[in-house]
């Protein structure tokens, strides 16, 4: 029986799931409902394990971690992003890295649309003013007939494009890999920035996409545009975004992700005008949660059924 460590189920999502019950049927489990907090603590938790089921992206799998854990053969990530895993180091140490692509795509796309509506219609502002005794009238944005620019055309980007078209928006898309979708009429990034009333980010975080949306890119957008980001916080230069919003060079933003998470007390983004914030929760619906955890466990099961029992040499 293989040993699987869950080093970071904090706050717990796995322990009460059907996926966890399924995992117990074929694996011995070493379970933690707190974050490791340090590289040394992570190594201590997973040092004797054959595989890891990784829940939180704050747990980083580095060269040092792989070097110190010679028995480790698999890291099964709950989620799509693998930016917290040194993939080159994993390959050097013979560790397979699996993720759960696509399972949260519809949930994240719906959340992106919800953020967009909240910003365009200034829902939090109107709610607060009405509760305090006002009866405000404001300058709202009707989205039907406007242009929605989708940056990134993976599973989430495609779902969001479909939803945006469904409410009557004209959708234009840009991707790093147009060859993968030969039937889609992609536009140049400059054209998207210059024409879109809404720009929604759906890229993976990598060295290539860190601060992909920077001050220059924000400056090419319409002053009336709304930016939505449900991908990764570091894809957008947060300081540049705050400056653009504060100066009126951008009309608003809907953000589920941030460069520092959780957001610290007094974070500058709190002071930016017409920003709607959620706590990196776009993909956490019961349906997406169950599907993602099940896939993460299935990835371990598939690997376990095909593995060699020979441990790696130190």
Task: Describe the 3D structure.
It is a single chain. This protein is α/β, with parallel strands linked by helices. It folds into two domains: 123 residues, NAD(P)-binding Rossmann-like Domain (Rossmann fold); 173 residues, NAD(P)-binding Rossmann-like Domain (Rossmann fold, 3-Layer(aba) Sandwich), CATH 3.40.50. The protein is built from eleven helices and eleven strands. Strands 7-6-8-9-10-11 form a six-stranded parallel beta sheet, with helices on both faces. A five-stranded parallel beta sheet has the order 2-1-3-4-5. α1 runs parallel beside α11. The protein is globular and about 65 Å long. The chain starts with a strand and ends in an 8-residue tail after the last helix.
Q: Which strand order spans the largest sheet, edge to edge or round the barrel? A: 7-6-8-9-10-11
| Helix content estimate | 25-40%
Count of strand segments:
11
Q: Give unreliable regions as ranges.
A: 310-314
CATH architecture of the largest domain: 3-Layer(aba) Sandwich
CATH fourth-tier homologous superfamily of the largest domain: NAD(P)-binding Rossmann-like Domain
Task: Walk me through the topology.
Layout: E1 2-6, H1 18-24, E2 27-31, H2 39-46, E3 51-54, H3 63-68, E4 74-77, H4 87-92, E5 96-98, H5 105-120, H6 123-131, E6 147-151, H7 155-166, E7 170-174, H8 189-195, E8 198-201, H9 215-219, E9 226-229, H10 238-246, E10 252-255, E11 275-277, H11 286-306
Parallel strand pairs: 1-2, 1-3, 3-4, 4-5, 6-7, 6-8, 8-9, 9-10, 10-11
Helix pairs in contact: 1-11, 5-7
Summarize the structure.
This protein is α/β, with parallel strands linked by helices.
């Amino acid at each position: 029986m293989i040993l699987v460590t869950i080093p970071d189920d904090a706050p717990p999502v796995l322990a009460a799931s059907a996926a966890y019950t399924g995992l117990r049927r074929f694996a011995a489990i070493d379970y933690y409902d707190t974050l490791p907090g340090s590289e040394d603590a992570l190594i201590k938790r997973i040092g004797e394990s054959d595989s890891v089921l990784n829940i939180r992206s704050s747990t980083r799998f580095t060269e040092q971690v792989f070097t110190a854990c010679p028995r480790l053969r698999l890291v099964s990530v709950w989620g799509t992003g693998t930016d917290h895993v040194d993939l080159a180091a994993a390959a050097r140490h013979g560790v397979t890295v699996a993720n759960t692509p696509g399972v949260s795509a519809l949930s994240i796309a719906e959340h992106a649309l919800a953020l967009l509506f909240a910003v365009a219609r200034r829902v939090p502002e109107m709610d607060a003013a009405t509760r305090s005794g006002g009866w405000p009238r404001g300058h709202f944005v009707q989205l039907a007939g406007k242009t929605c620019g989708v940056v990134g055309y993976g599973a989430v980007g495609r779902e969001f494009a479909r939803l945006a078209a469904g409410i009557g928006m004209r959708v234009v898309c840009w991707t790093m890999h147009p060859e993968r979708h030969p039937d889609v009429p992609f536009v140049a990034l400059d054209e998207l920035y210059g024409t879109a009333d809404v720009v929604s980010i759906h890229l993976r975080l990598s060295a290539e996409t860190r601060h992909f949306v920077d001050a220059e890119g924000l400056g090419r957008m319409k002053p009336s545009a709304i930016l939505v980001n449900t991908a990764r916080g570091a894809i957008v230069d947060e300081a540049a975004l705050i400056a653009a919003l504060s100066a009126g060079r951008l009309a608003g933003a809907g953000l589920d992700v941030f460069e520092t998470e959780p957001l610290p007390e007094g974070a500058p983004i709190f002071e930016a005008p017409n920003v709607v914030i959620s706590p990196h929760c776009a993909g956490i619906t019961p349906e997406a949660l169950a599907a993602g955890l099940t896939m993460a466990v299935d990835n371990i099961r598939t690997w376990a059924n095909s593995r060699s029992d020979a441990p790696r040499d130190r």
